[in-house]
Structures are given as structure tokens and as C-alpha cells.
Amino acid sequence: MMNAQVKKIVLAFVVFFAAFSFGCNASSKNSLNEFYGEDVQYFFGLEELRKGDEEKAKKCFVRCVQRGSYYPARRSFEQFALIGNVQERIKVCREFLKKYDDDFAKLFACREFIRHKEFSLALDATENLDFENAPNELVRLRLDLMERKKDSRLERTIYDWFTKRRISADHYIFYRENARDDLENFITREGNFLESHNDFSFNVNFIQQFRIAIYRGNYNAAFEMFDQIREMTIARQSVPLTYQLVADMGRACLNGSKENIANAEFFAELAQDENFSDKKIKYYALLYSGLLYNKSDSLLRRALEQFDLAIQFAGSEEECDQAIWYYLQSCLRISVDEAVVGLRKYCAAWNEASYFDDFFDSLSVLLFSGGKWNAFSEIFSTIKNYASPAMVSKFAYLTARIMQAGFLEGDDNEIEKAFWVAANCDAGTYVYYKLLAAKQLELSKEQIEEIFFGTKSEQKKSEKNSARKKVAQENSISQNQEFSSDEKAISARKLLLGYAEFGFAEKIYDEWLFFFEQDKRTIDLPTATKLAEFLRKLDDGQSGFYSKSLRMISRHAGFSQTHSLAGEKISRENFLLLYPQDFSEEVNSACAEFGIDDYVMYALIRTESFFEPGVQSHAGAIGLTQLMEGTAADCAASLKVSEYDLHDPAVNVRFGTFYFSKMKSRLDDSQILALFAYNAGLTNVRRWIRGSKIQLDARGKISSDLFLESLPFAETRDYGRRVISAAAMYAWLYDGINPCDVVSEMM
């Protein structure tokens, strides 16, 4: 049975989500105390720090440390460690480490130890780090401390850090600051290599150079080092071989060498080498053996054999899915028929269904280009219990449409049943095929409301069951545990909601991101929704809260849909946050000027920039509508604007709306073709139209939904789906327009 304090917290949460509204229902200190309990002292302490009263803040933090729930107490401890003289701070940090002693506690304490020149304490605190999982910053701190202390273990520690995990920006910075020689210098030492390989210091530097070359994409240089790496790690075993080194050796061979068969056979032999029993080493050796065989059309079957073996050695769900994905991609290179056989073989074995969505997208394009219409219904029946809801919806819809278009036999009953499957799939935020199916079924707004959100009675039943499940989980908490995972999750949610309630909005996003990246289930969708609403209301056009709110709710909603979390069904309230009308004045003005529906431009802006006015792509596209400088210059000339700033939302939205209207007028007033041209250029769109007429044997107008499926650019296909579905959602949510009408209008 759970203790009285946890019962009180659970009850408070149930009541809280029934009536909570920031700044309205909890206006007095008494009501705050009632909901937050002793956690309120943390927020009172922050308020006192704002006022500059450290003594009062200390008292609040100490009280929360003693009586608060997990995260407010922990944050109070951290704040307390930043107050007082140096001796007091050091003492509190040491006590903090005794209480928590995880990597994040070590990182916090070590920053303070180093700031106050207590280097020995920081070095002691970082003993026995897990170099595969510890924060890179924490490892960097330890390396700097070891260098300062001339610790004899330094080079072995560097080796562990550089060979037990993927190379990061932290590794690259360390390398730039500490490497003894440049890459070319090492390569030219080949003549002295056999005499040098027993020098551990030389080996550490050499392997650093090799992994950094891979990190920077300098594969030719990396492959020049391949023989030496193989000699020191495998032939002579002068230094330990790790699976990360095997993976980078594979990347060097894949991208820096043309000897694919010889390299594939090397990795196949490595997987069988009894000197290396680590399953991860065998897994990556088999994986890269398969990838190298896969580069030769005549050896695709051998590639499949290697991926089959890799699946058997997979040590995690992620590794299993990765090997299955490569297996299916190799099947696809043989034929779409082979891909269907591969799906039958492995669809029940994969773990994260959405991991394979891009494979299904590639598969459907090849089916269209090859006219393999029968395969659609076969794939649909194979995957309907295993693929992600988004892909089930897609193949149900396409199967029905191909039957409807006469490419595949099927009666009206079969067609309607498949459309209903597509419409009823709970694909979360991926609503494109759901909306297209609703259009084909000619559903009313009320019916669409039901397939998205269910009836009111069903919603209440779901909420009730979810609440009961939560209470049942809390009742199972053992009193012998100091803090269970459920208690920590509740504490984290209260911490974030408290930041909103007490006016510390600047802390919300970074703290939420910390929890989300550690364990995505810590913050539930209702809590994320409240926080996203709060940030949105605070945005002043400069704070960036618009995009933070959107990113928060998008990631949560996407995760909830992908993992089918109980009680996490996406609601109308969530969709309003997912499709916000930011910069409404600028959008409405530009749309009125150029005769474009506002919901189309909201959809375009959301897809292009996620409403971040200062964003700039790698290709140089700028601002809300992601215009290139050359395109913007043409728009300015047409609009007779001599001076402009694309980072100004009003200018950017006006130019982007004008450019979209121009594409629309040049493509027979077709909105979907204008979208494709906006993304990929007018010339490409005209070429695709000609090609699709041949593929689909079309004499006249091509149906837009099937035309989209035949486009050769995955980015443009995805772009079209996202903008069309977003426009329909905007029109429905804000204007009450049946989304099916918008789909018909745009396609």
C-alpha cells in the first residue's frame, strides 16, 4: 500500500487536472500550499532569491530538502549549494553527492568543486564513470582534472572515452585542443608503424585520429588508416577492440573503399573470431558485412544471410530493428516481391513499428513505378497488425483507391471497408490518409469528430479508466522504496507546473527537455498540454515561447501516438496547440492581399519553419516561409520593394504568400502542384506530371492523391502530405469547415 503522502499527491493530481487553470483556480497561498504541499517551499525560495534575500531563501530550500518530493527537494538542494561562502557551498555539494550520487549530481557538484578550485574532490567524485553512458561534459571534466594532476591513468581514460561511444562535438573539441599531431603526420608514419604499435600513447592518438576522421566524414583518410587499426586491435590486440571501433571501421570501408567483397569477408570472419566474444562486436561485424555485400547486385542474398545472423546477435530492441530494417532494404533491392516475403518473415519480430515507416514509403513508390498493384492489398493484409497506425492507414487507403481507380480488382464493399480502416486508424498526429479516407467516405463534420476524438461518453470512460489505472499503479508502490519511479514522475510534473504557477516560465522548457530526454514517459500528455498552453499565452514575439510550446506538444503527442500510451489519446485541445495561428496579423494581411486562404499559409508556415521567424536552413532558406535570397529578390522586384529584411515576419510572410500565389497561377490554379513547386521547383513538377501520366496510364487529368504517391522525391511527398493535412486541420479547428472539403479543394 502507498503511504499517506503519495495518496495525497495522487488525489491532488486527479482534482488538479479536472479544474486547473494557471493563475485562476490557485490564486491564494493557501490553495498553493494545499496542492504543492512542502514543495511550495522551493518556489518560495526562488522568489526570495529574486528579491535578493538569501537568508529567507535558504530557510525555504532547507525545508523543501527535508520534506519535499523528489525533484523539488533535489532542485532545492542544488540552489542551497549556490548560496553562502565557499566553505558552506563545498560542504553542501558534498552532502548533495551523498544523497543522490548519480551522473547528473556528479556533474553539478563537480562544476562547483572546480569553480572553487577543489580539484581533488572533483576527481574523487568522478571515479568509476560509465564511459558509454556518462554525460560527455562530466567525462571532459575528469580528463581535465587528470591532466592537471598528471594522473597515470589519463591515456587509458581517453582511450575508453574515445572507443566506447559515438563520437560527439565534445570529443572533437577535446581532440582539437589536445591532439599531438595532425592526421597527415600519422598516415606518413606507416613505415614506423610496426615499431610504434606497442606504444600505448601512440595507439591512443592514432585511434583518436581515426574516429575523428569518421566523425568529420573524411572517409578516404580514415580508410588509409584501416590496416593499422586492424593490426593494433585485432591482429596484435595491442589495445582493446570495441563495437564502436568495429562500426567506424565498417563506415570507413563503406564510404572510403571500393573493395566491397574483400571488406565484407573481413567483417564476416571477424564475427566468427573466437577471440572476440562481445555480442555487440559480432553484431556490428555482421551488420557491416551485410552492408558491404549489399553494394554488389550479385551478392544481395549473401547480404540477407548476414543481416539474418545480425538479428540473432542483437542485444537490444534498437539493434534488432536496425538489422531488420537493413534486411528489408536489401529485399527491396532484389524485388518488391522479395520485400513482401521479408515483411511476412519479420513484421511480427520488430519492436518499434514507426522505425519502418520510411521503408514503407520507399516500397509504395516502387510499387507505383512498377505497376505492382496486387502487392498493395497483400502488404495491407500482412502488416495491419504490426505496422504503425500511420502505415496501416496509408496502405488501407491506397489499396482502396487503387481498386477504385480500376488498377486492382475489388468490389464496392471491399473498397468501403478499406477506407473505413484508414479512417479509423488512431495515427495520432499523422492524419493525412485518415482525412483522405474521410473524404472518400463523404463523412460529415460530426462523423469526423467521432473518428478523431470519439464520443463524449467514450472520452469520459477513457479518462476514468486512465485515472483508475494511475491509482492502481500508485497503490502498488512499496513502502520500502525511498522514491519509486511513479513518485518521481509525479514529482517532476509538479515541479514543471510549479514553474508555471509561480512565474518561472524561463525554466520550463529546459527542465521539460531534460525529463523528456531521460525518460519520455516521465511527463504525461496532460501535463505537457498545460505547460504548452501556458508558454503560448506568454509569448511576446521575442521570447521564442511560440516554437517551444509547439515543439513540446508535438514531441509529446508524437511519442504518445507511436507508443500507444494508455490514456494518452490526442484531444481537440492538443490539436489546437499542434496547429497554432501564430503571427496571425501578418498571415491574414498577406492572404487578403494575394487571395490565398489563411489556413493554407498557416499550414505552409508550420511545415516550413514551425513558426520560428529567425530560423535559417543549411541551404540558406530564411524565416517563417523559408525563402531563398534569390527567390526573395524576385518577389521584391515584382512587388516593387527596394529594401527588405527576410527575418521580419511581416516581410517574410508577404513574400512567401506572393510566391505561393505565383506558383499557383502558373500551374492551372492547382494548390497541391503549387505546394510541390514551392518545395522542389516548377521545372521538377512539370517533369513529374509527364512521368506520372506514363506510370498511371493517364490520358487526361491525374488524380492528385495518386500523383503524390508517385513523386520521386521523398521530401516533396512528405511535404505535400504535411501541408495538405495541416491546412485541413486549420480550417476545421478554427473555421468549422469540414476538412474533407479542404482536401477536395486542395487536391
Low-pLDDT residue intervals, each spanning 5 or more residues: 1-27, 456-481
Q: Number of helical segments?
A: 43
Shape: globular
Annotation, overall tally of beta strands: 0
Mean pLDDT equals 87
Radius of gyration: 29 Å
Query: How much beta, percentage-wise?
Result: under 5%
| N-end to C-end Cα span | 58 Å
Largest sheet: none
Helix content: over 70%
Structural classification: mainly alpha
Question: Can you give a write-up of this model?
Answer:
The protein is mainly α. It is built from 43 helices and no strands. The two termini are 58 Å apart.
Helix and strand arrangement:
Blueprint: H1 4-19, H2 29-36, H3 40-51, H4 54-67, H5 70-80, H6 86-99, H7 103-115, H8 119-125, H9 136-149, H10 154-163, H11 169-178, H12 183-187, H13 193-196, H14 200-215, H15 219-224, H16 226-235, H17 243-256, H18 260-272, H19 279-293, H20 300-313, H21 317-334, H22 336-346, H23 357-370, H24 373-383, H25 389-404, H26 412-424, H27 432-440, H28 445-453, H29 456-475, H30 485-501, H31 508-518, H32 525-538, H33 545-563, H34 572-578, H35 584-594, H36 598-609, H37 629-639, H38 649-666, H39 671-680, H40 682-695, H41 704-710, H42 714-735, H43 739-746
